[in-house]
Design goal:
CATH class: Alpha Beta
Strand order of the largest sheet: 2-1-3
Pfam families: PurS
Protein name: Phosphoribosylformylglycinamidine synthase subunit PurS
Family: Belongs to the PurS family.
Structural class: alpha+beta
EC number: 6.3.5.3
Strand content: 25-35%
Oligomer: single chain
Keywords: ATP-binding, Cytoplasm, Ligase, Nucleotide-binding, Purine biosynthesis
Shape: elongated
Length: 76
């Protein structure tokens, strides 16, 4: 079983990496990009039957900084 965890900065938190990407895209001639938010995807190979709650605990304790980040879990 696999789980994908999508981690993004919460709305309102400054994203300097996203801003750098937005600026670079403009420098390369890509117009119309008003905002970029950069995040990360963490893919976990889990034992069959691992409950989603266990993955949620992993996120809350290590994989995401819940003060400034939000996360979504996708079981595949």
């Amino acid at each position: 079983m696999k789980a994908r965890v999508h981690v993004m900065l919460k709305d309102g938190v400054l994203d300097p990496q996203g801003e750098a990407v937005r600026h670079a895209l403009g420098s390369l001639g890509f117009e119309g990009v008003d905002k970029v938010r950069q995040g990360k995807v963490i893919e976990l190979d889990l034992a069959d039957g691992t409950p989603e709650e266990t993955v949620r605990e992993m996120c809350e304790k290590l994989l995401a900084n819940t003060v400034i980040e939000r996360f979504d879990i996708e079981l595949v």
